[in-house]
Amino acid sequence: MKECDKAIQMTFEIVDKMLKLADYGEEVREDDGCGILYSVLRDSAYKIRKLAEAEKEAHIKKGWWQE
What we know:
This protein is mainly alpha-helical. About 85% of the residues lie in helices and about 0% in strands.
């Protein structure tokens, strides 16, 4: 796998951690400020994942991506 593809794969892993943290933070939060924080974290993770998926597709079309 090319290094640039590894970086995209690592991005997916970070996104998964962000989503798990947002879920956990939402469960344990005690005020509205934390709710906003974890909502922003979740929203950001979805946006990053969408960008990473687009890059993965571009790399697949170029013939670079290998599982």
